[in-house]
Design brief:
single chain; 265 residues; alpha+beta; N-terminal domain of MutM-like DNA repair proteins; Helicase, Ruva Protein, domain 3; 2 domains; four-stranded antiparallel sheet; 8 helices; elongated; DNA-binding
Length: 265
DNA sequence: ACATGCACCTGGGAGC
DNA sequence: TGCTCCCAGGTGCATG
């Protein structure tokens, strides 16, 4: 499920529910020792990572990968079929990590390990520091790369995944296989504006949702039914811009959706 | 540098 | 209903 807008939404949902809570018990033995008795100081996000800094140092880091979900549920409620980690909290609640595909993870990092992990990540695309000049500098450094693999590279820019990479490229009218170094200034400007606009609008759309609604749309071809997407998993449907049929192709092994007319190579 | 393929895992939907 | 096949919103690594 989650790319930057979804993870940010989860973080905003969790923050008031977890801040100041003490961890009373942990379902996974390896995490019990560093977590039990600690208090969650805050809930933050970097790239697609959920960060729960703890009192007395250290941070619980969660990556939801493809299918992970984080919920605060009543501690008395039996955990769902895919629950992988349950933190029982002060106040009769539990933080539950569900992950059908088991690719997600939760680890406790000390401050040095956390800093090292975060240092490998590219810039936050919605931060003001990620301006046109910053993008152009990064495009130049990776000028032989194709655009979609670049957008998917966590070291190039943080938080963009397969859905929003396609949505960004459609909005910018750029072909997924175009070379970064071949972008004329107007194309680079379109790419920059599209990153900001697509992610910003997606975040606003998530914010308007009740968190439980995410359960309904998660998994499978669920994304295809999402009304806020222009091209992703909409092959065969008319392009919202020119009405030509959208097509599916494969780039870097990932399903890739585009309008071959609007996004000419 | 960059592309490609695979690895990690499991499940859901489509088609028969 | 039940099978098989295909696909899956992430990332790191190994190889050419």
């Amino acid at each position: 499920m989650p790319e930057l807008p979804e993870v940010e939404h989860i973080v905003r949902y969790l923050r008031p529910r977890l801040t100041g809570r003490r961890i009373e018990a942990v379902s996974v033995a390896a995490l019990a020792r560093p977590l039990v008795g600690r208090t969650i100081r805050d809930v933050a996000r970097r790239a697609k990572l959920v960060l729960l800094p703890l009192d007395r140092g250290g941070t619980l880091v969660v990556h939801l990968k493809l299918t992970g979900k984080l919920w605060v549920r009543p501690a008395a409620e039996p955990p769902g079929r895919h629950a992988r980690l349950v933190l029982r909290l002060s106040g009769e609640d539990a933080l539950v990590l569900e992950d059908a595909r088991r690719l997600g993870w939760a680890r406790v990092h000390d401050d040095a390990a956390l800093a090292a992990a975060l240092a490998r990540l590219g810039p936050e695309p919605l931060e003001p520091a990620f301006d046109l000049a910053a993008l152009r500098a990064r495009l130049h450094a990776r000028r032989r790369s194709r655009l979609k693999p670049l957008l998917l590279d966590p070291a190039f820019v943080a938080g963009i995944g397969n859905i929003y990479a396609d949505e960004v490229l459609f909005a910018a009218r750029l072909h997924p296989l175009a070379r970064a170094g071949d972008l004329a200034p107007p194309a680079a400007r379109r790419l920059h504006a599209a990153i900001k606009r697509v992610l910003g609008r997606a975040l606003a759309a998530r914010t308007a949702e009740v968190p439980d609604q995410e359960r309904v749309g998660a998994g499978g071809r669920g994304a295809a039914r999402r009304l806020d997407l222009a091209v992703f998993q909409k092959d065969g449907q008319p392009c919202p811009r020119c009405r030509a049929a959208l097509v599916r192709t494969v780039v870097q092994g990932r399903g890739t959706y585009l309008c071959a007319r609007c996004q000419a190579e």
